[in-house]
Amino acid sequence: MTTELRPETIEWENLGFSYIKTDYRFISYYKEGAWDEGTLTEDNQLHISEGSTALHYGQQCFEGLKAYRTADGSIQLFRPFENAKRMKRSCERLLMPVYPEDKFVEAIKKVVEANEDWVPPYGTGSSLYIRPFIIGTGDNIGVKPADEYIFSAFVMPVGPYFKGGLKPTNFLVTDYDRAAPKGTGAAKVGGNYAGSLLPGKEAKERSFSDAVYLDPETHTKIEEVGAANFFGITKDDLFITPKSSSILPSITKYSLLWLAENRLNLKVSEGDVYVDQLDQFKEAGACGTAAVIAPIGGLQIKDDFHVFYSETEVGPVTKRLYNELVGIQTGDVEAPEGWIEKVK
Ligand SMILES: Cc1ncc(COP(=O)(O)O)c(C=O)c1O
Predict the structure, then answer these.
(1) Per DSSP, what are the bridge partners of residue 136?
(2) How far is the CA of 293 from the centre of ligand 1 (A)?
């Protein structure tokens, strides 16, 4: 459902994670082997052929990143070149033309600046979510890559993705898989998400925040927490996050790995997180652009319910990681070199 809101009337502190039509989006067309210059448009509707490969064969990919308002009123992006690189890898996996990395960041800056009034004020806990995507278009019917594509990026102000924000919520380990061992799990492509709708619905119907997926090969190790990566803090202060070729390489996760090691002086590792060995963890959370850091209170695994730190309180290490990450994103904490791109 479209929500018709204007920046003047938004209650920035009370935003959830829903579509809001903002004023401008960036759009570029790929035809005869080349991307055009691209332009900003006020039209939020796409007019595409019924034969578009994105509609039938899922030939599409997307990204998600955010723009943040800082205390001095400026606007900045968090690691946008990492999103550009991941989109490149998604395109390569689905045989789509790459949108050049520098042009990607330029387009993001343009669309954010054009929608400047929609960037939530500093201190509200909200930010501007940016959704770039590429779809295969044109007149096609056979299962093969399209000749024509659209790259576009639209934006909207958002609040927390999981309704608790920094309050812990509970998750349900599902029997369904979101990705196959050598499938497309590591690419940010729509097919992975279509398959996650049913397990996500089942989890929410049982009052959990989302489904947790195990590794598709053995169903013994944690892979993903809905549309976010998992991390845990062991009782001897190791920050650990799953390593697998079928999870999405989260930019937030790699940022936390670096911050845990270099700012919190924790040991860090990417490795196996066995679902029957959760007692080793004193804290756990989900991390991602949308989720930011969402503490996991408890995890339902068949008939067992495992509580990490607490069902109601955020653990101290998770809180420190959150403060460091969000501090960098909003300009309050010094960022490692190259992590921040100023829009204006
Ligand atoms: C399946 C999945 N895992 C993890 C993430 C987190 O990735 P990032 O930190 O790059 O946003 C996302 C969101 O992009 C996601 O959709």
Answers:
(1) 149
(2) 11
Question: What pTM, to 2 d.p., does this model score?
Answer: 0.97
Quickly tell me which residue has 């903002």 as its tokens: 22
- Report phi then psi at 247, rounded to 5: -100, 160
Residue nearest to atom 16 of ligand 1 (CA): 227
What is the predicted pLDDT for the residue at 1? 56
CA distance 187 to 253: 15
Residue 161 pLDDT > 90: no
CA–CA dist 135, 61 (Å, integer) = 7
Answer yes or no: 188 catalytic.
yes
| Interval 98-119 mean pLDDT | 98
pLDDT band at 310 (very low <50, low <70, confident <90, very high): very high
Is the pLDDT at 237 greater than 80, yes or no? yes
Closest residue by Cα to atom 7, ligand 1, is: 250
Q: What pLDDT score does 344 carry? A: 85
Q: What percent of the chain has pLDDT over 90?
A: 96
Count, residues in the chain: 344
CB 114 near ligand 1, within 6 Å? no
Measured from the Cα of 188, ligand 1's closest atom is: 16
DSSP letters spanning 6-19: -GGG--GGG--S--
- Ligand 1 proximity of 64 Cβ (cutoff 6 Å): yes
In 3D space, the residue among 290, 25, 22 whose CA is nearest the CA of residue 151 turns out to be 25
- 125 contacts 62 by C-beta, under 8 angstroms: no
